[in-house]
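job 3f2a | input accepted
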Amino acid sequence: MSTVMARIKRFTRTPQGQRLISATRRAAQDPRTQARARQLIGRLRGRRRR
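job 3f2a | predicted structure (50 res):
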């Protein structure tokens, strides 16, 4: 599993990885994205209780 983490870490240091990180951060601040994430989490939590 550490190999996977090392590959991810290496990718985040590339220009493409940096672009992806900044795009993800921008999307995370969007209220619509936040609402979708909360909705998904709510659905996942609801499935466990059954």
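job 3f2a | Residues 8 and 17 are 9 Å apart (CA to CA).
job 3f2a | closed
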